[in-house]
Amino acid sequence: MRSRNCASLSRSAALTLVVGGAVALAAEKTDRGIAVQKDLDNKAMQLFGVNQTLDSSSTTDLTSAQIQANPGSVATLANGLSARVVSAAQTGRPST
Length: 96
Hints:
Elements lengths: L1 H29 L1 H11 L1 H5 L15 H6 L27
């Protein structure tokens, strides 16, 4: 009886792994965010005029004082791009 229970548990564990792997694989293939990111990567030159998109988002955490001292520091640009601050004035109202 004990060996039958062990065999049943082994089959259940194997089935769980197979089903779990299939679900993970299906999720990867249908993940809209991944599809959009790959599409943007493939069309970076056509859409944005750059060879490739950024590898990741910026992780820099700036204080208000740092931003006021250097407003251009709030943006991280891809290689070959440049930017300039047009206005750093505070209007006292939220942007729309």
